[in-house]
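Key idea: predict the complex, not the pieces.
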Amino acid sequence: MLETLFFYAFAALALLGAILTVTLRNAVHCAISLIASLAGVAGLFLLQRAEFLFAVQIVLYIGGIMVLFLFVIMLVNLDAAARERQYHRQWIAGALSVVGTGLIFAYFLTRGAESLKLNEPVPAGPRNSEAVQMLADSLFREYLVPFEVASLLLLIAIVGSVVMAKKRI
Amino acid sequence: MPASFMPSAQELMRFAPEMLLTLAGTLIMLLEPFTESGNKSRLAWLALGALLAALGLTAVSAADPGPAFSNMLLIDEFGTFFRFLVLAVGVLTILISTHYLRSGGHESGEFYALLLFSIVGQCIMATANELIMLFIGLEVSSIASYVLAGYLRDDKRNNESALKYFLLGSFATAFLLYGIAWTYGITGTTDLSLIRSALLNPASRPNEVLTAAASAFLFVGLAFKVSAAPFQMWTPDVYQGAPAPVTAFFSAGPKAAAFAMFLRIVLTGFEPLKKEWEPLLWVSALATMIIGNFAALRQTNVKRLLAYSSISHAGYVLVALTTHSGPGAAAAMFYLAAYCFMNVGAFAIITHVARRDERYVEIADLAGLGTRQPLMAGLLTVFLLSLTGIPLTAGFFGKFYIFKVALDQGFIWLAILGLLNSALAAYYYLRVIVVMYMEPAPEGEGELPAPAAGVLAAAVGSAIATFFLGLFPSSLLDFADKARRIFN
Amino acid sequence: MSSTLAQILSQPWFIPLVVGVLILALAPLAVAGTVLLERKVLADMQARLGPMRVGPQGLLQTIADAVKMLLKEDIIPEDANKFMFRTAPIISFFTAATCLTVVPFTGVFKVTDVNVGLLVISAMSSVGILGIILGGWASNSHYALLGSLRSAAQLVSYEVALGLALMCGVMSAGTLSMTGIVNAQMERGVWFAFDNFGLMFVPMMVYFISSVAETNRAPFDLPEAESELVAGYHTEYSGFRWGCYMLAEYVNMFSVGSVLITLFWGGWLRPFPNVTWLDAPLNYGVPIVVFLATAALCLYLSRKQPIQGYAIGLVGVAVLFLVMAGLFAWPAFNAPAAPLFWFFLKLFIIMYLFIWFRGTFPRYRYDQLMNIGWKIMIPTALGAIFVNALVGIARG
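Result:
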């Protein structure tokens, strides 16, 4: 009961934050809404007893990425840009496509709900230190190569951004 | 420490080409600050050497096929084929780009490093047997490509190209990833062979609505990456704006790798759904051919023309894919190999003619090339004829096999429409040839310097490959035929 | 009656609740104490007396300051972003206090033992940065904005080194749970700072230095460099909102100190935790000696007070300390209280070091700060992880 309540609270936070992120005009407010949304997702992780993911979600997204976002937004004066006429004025088309996509998804989910392979709810859950170990095991055994290649991906992204941004290399 | 943490030597050997290229790319970046600005071509040599060594390692690893790293990678003939292809494209690209970069004063290690990394991604796409691995390979390839597209930062065309590529590419990647998530949701796995068995198993066969959703998302992502209609919009702008050698690379390497991924997903994991995929694929194939060819008719910029032409060629490959058959896969592989060589060759000549800062990229700028530099004009003629599909060239057999397979599998009208399309395509290819030989060189244009050794080597090499595949198609087709057996 | 009491006492939520309330109630008091300590110690280092007027030896100075602060007018700048201006200090204080909830003061005396406790602390302290950035931004003032940007850059940079240094301890302990880390040190019989043939001392130092930067303390106190930025990110704040920021800062000092202690200095363990014969001298002797000495000092000082009331007060304090000394001699009290004593003794030493640094080191320039963070701390921490991992594997 309490868990259901928390689920809806966190889900609402995540959704509301996401909606405000794309609708608010002030870039700082958008970033804060996004933080709220990410925090909601972190809460959902916690409800699933994935404490590790919860903590990592907060450390990486809220504490790392969003702080840098805010940093950049504050350094770049966006007030002038916010006052400009916005390019997209397609509220009707946007709303229609959102409704359309929503209906399609609703159709998908109602028609196919029974074949979605949802994991059985774990009653007590493995003790979390074991859960972290299980995560590490699958990351470093089964998914070793994707994990390592992902680090190459990050390296490329760093090199790429330096190449694109720096005046003289 | 459990032994299973350490990959076996066998597995490492199977993954050796990618590891070597990654090391070489990192080494190039480390050496970059210690290399004098006049000596940057040493780094190009290093990259070239690494690619050749990787080719050798690919041959070695092909001798011992099998899965690696808990089925993340599957080194089979199919993967080896595409590995060879993207590595060869990489070699040609480096040959083309050194002079281009040096003449503009843009030569630096990062270019070669990013190129190598991009090729690593493409090799992974060719050999991955698992959706997460495919996705990461694709991202490695794509992100390096985005940067390469905007490599000349002070050039506005480059900026436009990079930004469009990046924004649309990330959007398409999101679709692909969403499709992967749906696939995982309905089958509980991301391993392609397990997905196949989950879809085949009548007991666990997921609801068709959900598989349709997953397929649709995957299709959007894949179609974007191979620039198939209706997701081809980005191609002309990106190809036109990027530096010419990079365009040569884009039109061949990433596209071949994306098709490798496409083939593997459609023909292994989602093979049980072939009835559902078929209409999706033929509509897209037809639209791609028609849009590409008709738009190419009206182009005046050579790079843009070739961009539209590459869209139409993607359409031909999609025809082969539509058949959902082993021979279709073999035909697609052969076509891609032929296409890569002739297209890179054509772009090599364009790079040469465009000169510094790419001032001469209109079709009119090719006027009189037949008298000014007969060799280059002759080579370009070969490539264009091959792209048209004239006999004796690789392009002919490529198209021949594809339409033959389409006829065999009962896609008669698709084959006929495809043939009509390639007849239409002859018009714009021949127009370029006409301009080269029939029109006098414009007055007051700067002297066209002799081709740089690298460009010449790349063009001649591509021409040889084009002729070789045109004269002895069975040599490659046999290999492709062996490779496609994994799909049966 | 007593059975219901026993029932309540044995409830799983009882101790967490009590400790949680105690943390919230005592943290401001502890902060007040630390501020007084800081002023006194700094004064001593500069050959001054420090606050002497309010209370005996100025003991009540910070209490008076707190009262003044609470009664101040609450000013919000006209052009500030009101909502953010109000929210930001709350974020700062809330996250700082949350950190303390996963700190095990002793094996029993703790709010909760989250299995990824260390990560929760990292998470909370990184969210705390938001309070600083948003506060600086919402103030709509150049000084505040620059201060907050400096602070964010500094915190993000040193967070990396901090996290990497933590990894060494986690590797040695094999768990992310704070209690589990202390238990691992108990089993191994050595504080992690001295483990791996002393190699763990390196990450300990990296953590310590980074945590000084992480709490914006001198010599890394650029975000509030008075001579350049007035007061940094909280320039525009006054009254209780400013108090929130100040509380958060000191609570953060407590929590990084607690993590340092838990991870590297044995948490609530006494020195040589598995040498049994040291039990009596260390667990009984040291607390009693400390409290007796303090009582003696109070008695000595009470004779020098100018006002008789102050002298009586000090004698009262001395009696309190004597009672404490007596309690520590009582085994039933000593068993749960000795670990607590060790924990807070260690925390006190860390706090003293923080103050000592402030009294001795000049402030770094901004580029020096970044160089230390990125070019010294992070590589050192990475090397330490690598070496300690190898040594750890070799030792099995």
